[in-house]
Each structure stands twice: as C-alpha cells, then as structure tokens.
C-alpha cells in the first residue's frame, strides 16, 4: 500500500501545479478620487489579464521623437495619459483619424490581429479596438 502512496502524491502534485500554471493571470485595481470638499467621488476599475497579448504588454518612453504635426483631439476630449490595462473612451476608438496606419514610419511593431496603434497627444497606444484596453504604451513618440 505504501509503495502506491508516494507515486500518487507525486502525480497529484504535478497535476495540481500544471492546473495552477494554466490559470489566467488576473489583477484588479481600483482607484478613488475625491474633491477637496469631499463631495464628489470617482471610482475607476482596471482589469488586467494575460489573454495572449502578454508579449506586447510594456510601457516605453521614447527617446526618438517624430514630427507628425499637432495632435487634434476629438471634440469634447481632454488629453489623459493612459497606462497599461486602462480602457480608452469610445470617442478615441471611433475616430479613424487617430489610427496610426503607417506604424512602421514611427518604428512601431506591426500590431497583431485585433490590436491597433492609436495616437493620443504625443503618445502612441496599442489598443484592443473591441474593448478599448491599452496593451502597450509608447510615451512621447511625437513632438509637441
């Protein structure tokens, strides 16, 4: 009986660790901002998952800057610097004028299927157009 317990324990440990490694990596963060008077609160939730874009998730601050003209924001939009995992508003995702189709002109890698390079201010963002999730940031890529 004892000769079967050790192999069974080893098998259980191997199967358990394989299942643990197969679990998706999910992280949730919540930030709260309030006005000095304490009247207004804004809660933003960000969910980061490893959904196949893990090799693209990175933040870069560019040392080379491209002169591509002044950024023209959509009506009603105020610039905000986005971080990995943040969700971009629809006003940016729906504006095809912000899409960087000539990404190779800016030394950006070709986006994988489902992702698109979008210019926001002086930054380039690799974004999932369906969800708005920022997968990669390239800060200060463009001259002001």
- Mean pLDDT equals 74
CATH superfamily of the largest domain: inner membrane protein cigr
Spatial order of the strands in the main sheet?
Answer: 3-6-5-4
Biggest sheet record: 4 strands, mixed
Given this structure, which CATH class of the largest domain is correct? Alpha Beta
What is the number of strand segments? 6
List SSEs in N-to-C order.
Answer: HEEEHEEE
**How many helices does DSSP assign?**
2
**Backbone shape:** globular
Indicate the percent of residues in helices. Answer: 10-25%
Q: In angstroms, what is the radius of gyration?
A: 21 Å
Poorly predicted sequence stretches spanning 5 or more consecutive residues = 6-35, 39-47
CATH architecture of the largest domain: Roll
| CATH topology grouping of the largest domain | Nuclear Transport Factor 2, Chain: A
Task: State the domain count.
Answer: 2
Terminal CA distance: 75 Å
SSE-based structural type? alpha+beta
Beta-strand percentage range = 25-35%
Overview of the molecule:
- With 144 residues, this protein is α+β, with helices and mostly antiparallel strands.
- It folds into two domains: 49 residues, no CATH class; 94 residues, Roll (Nuclear Transport Factor 2, Chain: A), CATH 3.10.450.
- It has a four-stranded mixed sheet, with no helix packed on it.
- A hairpin with a 2-residue loop joins strand 4 and strand 5.
- About 27% of the residues have low confidence.
